[in-house]
Amino acid sequence: MRKEQLKKISSHYILLPTKGLQKWPVITVNKKGEIVSLKYGSLAYTEEPGTEMHPGVIIPAFYDLFVSEKEKCAPTSIQDTINHFIGGTIELGATPTNKTVVLKSKVKIGDPINLTKEKEAQFLVRKSNNYKTPLFERIKSAALTGKEINHINLINTAVASVLKYRKKQELSPLIEVGGRPGLLILKGADLKNFKLKKETKVKWLVKPTFTT
């Protein structure tokens, strides 16, 4: 029997939805992007052969699902979906009228969630003036212009908001064994004060498949 292909990655920190930032994570994923093991802490970390070390913070991929009532804010071109993907988005809540965009989209196109009656953070909602801007860039803009002391909390806000509307069996940003959230590395942040900077970026580590 052929041995399953596994990928092991590590970093300085990992952002977990219920436990916040934890040091020295080691995550093992299979070829579908499913997490098969998750350890963190100085006792868990060992420099095992084949482990990829990525300086920064491992965070879940972004699920940009929320739109305003009047603006559906769907991508109008394949390049739009590519830009969102480069920005760390794995799923976009939208209703494109262009079937080619849906078929060749770089991100998963899901049902949009209307948040006009909810009191969620405004940077989460795509509107007519920001629907081409990836969610991470909107988070970073809110961090650099707002009063939030710990900028990592803004990423947690995005994760928590999705979990309020997502069923357990759907793709979600939960970093847990059995999950397929998609994994990014947050690079260039101030890890001493947990602040984002203008040059802070995200890079894909693990992109899961959309099918089970």
Give a structural overview.
- The protein is globular.
- The model has no long low-confidence stretch (mean pLDDT 85).
- The strands form 3 sheets. Strands 1, 2, 3, 4, 5, 11 and 12 form a 7-stranded mixed β-sheet that branches. Strands 6-8-9 form a 3-stranded parallel β-sheet.
- The chain folds into 2 domains: 89 residues, Urease, subunit C, domain 1; 103 residues, no CATH class.
- The longest helix is centred in the C-terminal third of the chain and has 14 residues.
- With 212 residues, the chain is α/β, with parallel strands linked by helices.
Class from helix and strand fractions: alpha/beta
Q: How confident is the prediction overall: mean pLDDT?
A: 85
Number of beta strands: 12
Assign an overall shape: globular
Number of domains: 2
The fraction of residues in strands falls at 25-35%
